[in-house]
Amino acid sequence: xxxxxxxxxxxTRLRPLTCDLPxxxxxxxxxxxxxxxxxxxxxxxxxxIIATLYYLPDVMRDYFQDGREFGVEITYAVEDExxxxxxxCVKNVEDLLQNTFLxxxxxxxxxxxxxxxxxxxxxxxxxxxxxxxxVPNPMEFGVVITDQEQKISRFLEKPSSSxxxxxxxxxxxxxxxxxxxxxxxxxxxxxxxxxxxxxxxAKGEPMYxxxxxxxxxxxxxxxxYREAQYDALEKKVKLYFAYTEESPGxxxxxxxxxxxxxxxEPPALIGDNCRIGSGVxxxxxxxxxxxxxxxxxSDLKRPIIWNGVTIGDESYLAACVIARGTRLDRRAQVLEGxxxxxxxxxxxxxxxxxxxxxxxxxxxxxxxxLNINLIWGSTANRNLFGQRGVTGLAxxxxxxxxAVKLGAxxxxxxxxxxxVVVSRDQRGFSRMISRSLISGLMSVGIDIQNLEATAxxxxxxxxxxxxxxxxxxxxxxxDRMDHILIEFFDxxxxxxxxxxxxxxxxxxxxxxxxxVGIADIGIMAYPAQIIETYRQTFExxxxxxxxxxxxxxxxxxxxxxVSGAILPQLLTKFGCDAIVLNASLRxxxxxxxxxxxxxxxxxxVVEAVKANLGAQVSANGEQFILVDESGLPIRGEWLTAxxxxxxxxxxxxxxxxxxxxxxxxxxxxxxxxDGRVIRTKSNPTALMEAxxxxxxxxxxxxxxxxxxxxxxxxxxxxxxxxxxxxxxLATQGRSLVQIQAELPRICHxxxxxxxxxxxxxxxxxxxxxxHHHEQxxxxxxxxxxxxxxxxxxxxxxxxxxxxxHIVANSDDREWVDVTLRxxxxxxxxFIEHEQDNLNSM
Length: 841
What we know:
Structural class: alpha/beta
């Protein structure tokens, strides 16, 4: 007799285990389900097998080949164009089925006596015999009713609880006569339970049900997959064990080393070439694949571990599944029901919460707590917040589901009934994510003041004016066009503190989310006259008469951003002759290449119309690049120096706040005007906090971050910066070219090196140790200074990525080049040395 092994299933419900593996090739006791079925067929003297394949067919063909090594003969039939269904795939091999044949599903574990079922079929002279079994909960299966002669009288596929009329179900194993295939259409999708069997019943063909004794488990979902493993270990099902039973209930493979201090409780199975470290506890129910390494003092409570897995010291695994090639670093925890897909990396002290699924080839950052499925993104981070709020790939890392939970986590750190401002840029994905975040906030009893699409400086201005507890702004990331950036403000409009970020992260990762009753769910309002309120605040900080009397001509490129809908209204009030470029709103971010092209176009227009200046506004109204009268751009350190010079001329003896990496031209300008410079950490929050905390601050920020005027509001504001610059040019009677001629010489270069996270701390310690303390400034990173002049070099770890920045500053270009080259070599050599040490551990 021939058997048809239906092995084409993709196993959607078993993902991520079946992302790169067909369902019949998923291992039970370290051997594919299909191998256990082939062993069952061979035990029942069925050695001619036709395997029907569809999903990833080469995986099964490469493993079994012609079947000789498994004591059978296997022929393969691949459904190339479309899946044909359970009956259609058998119809497809009709020419190979001239006599009575058996059909068996490729995704179940059983030890039924198939010869007894075949004998029953022949005795009843049946055209189709279904092998049945009785189960406690038949709702997931096809229910079958038979009469006293065991002739089938009724079918019901996957009944609801009210439709259950029997506990006898179809196991997917059939004994058929070849003529029943004549009822099926050729090369069309069809199903045994839905199409063929009801038709045979209607035609009055003799069809019987054989109720089999023995074990049967449909490995249709992840819980069933684990249960089948545990049942097999406890010998509830007769399966072939590929390893020697060294002691009762403990099976061990060849060349496996187990430290004498390790403890193994039966039943347990450990494959070939494994290494079990000292103090390891392997409790009953563990299934460990081939080539697995388990570090010292790890605690394993019934995990299923596939081949090639590496588990670090002191790890904890409980009733989970770890797929092939995965690495768990020291003290990692994977809790009950979690599934880690193939070739993933779980970092040191990371925790995968119960029932979480991680898709293949993902990386869980050290210390991260993962309590949602990781499917689309490549990494699960330890922290939600980076250098500038919460950021990630739009609709991959930052999804609507993520935003709902983030909003609920933020709202849970505030008092119920608090109000929060929410705003965004004009882009479609920002609108989508903001709506989800608002839903999360309202679910925990937070009321919303929704500013909708507006520039971020306006949000910061309105936050204290509306008397709310905080604010959230969503926008395209200024530096990554495919990323979204979510920033949180306090009640003054300043980015929230690190301690508040930690509270939100704690609520998010621990799922410590407040839930309120229907009566207390938050409400949403839409404040009126937002732009008018901002304009009035704006005007209180400007000498409007000076601007108006000078009749400035300015060309502004809005780069298709939302500030293009706001700034023209303000400039008109000041009597500016403003020429506007690219003020229409665009749903997608502007690529860097296009932005540079727009900047070149801006320079040409400024020169052609003989404007006083041009400006390209970006980052949702926070940042800008100037263009002088001759059409040349002013940006970065030159823009910082120009703004500082202009401000100190207008406000001598005041204070400016700049990031640690800003050039020393700032100090040189301050000395000319008897001013003072405060340097802060590189992140925007530190700049905002310092600008607010110190009195007599006239300016904060830099050309790269944007500029803060603390008397206006605590954030970066390109719109006010331009208006203030026009005022100062008018009152000082100077042009941009004249101001640039006064600036100190700026020699300022930077270089980026890749540096693994685990090495960053050691690198900083090394740099501190090799320099005298009088040479060091440790505001952010390690800054090596020369107390006699303005020469310095800064080594600054990147807050968001595995990089380190090396910045050199001097008024001597040769010194900058030599120093930058020296420290690049020094840092690179240290990183390589540390990596060699880590790899040898």
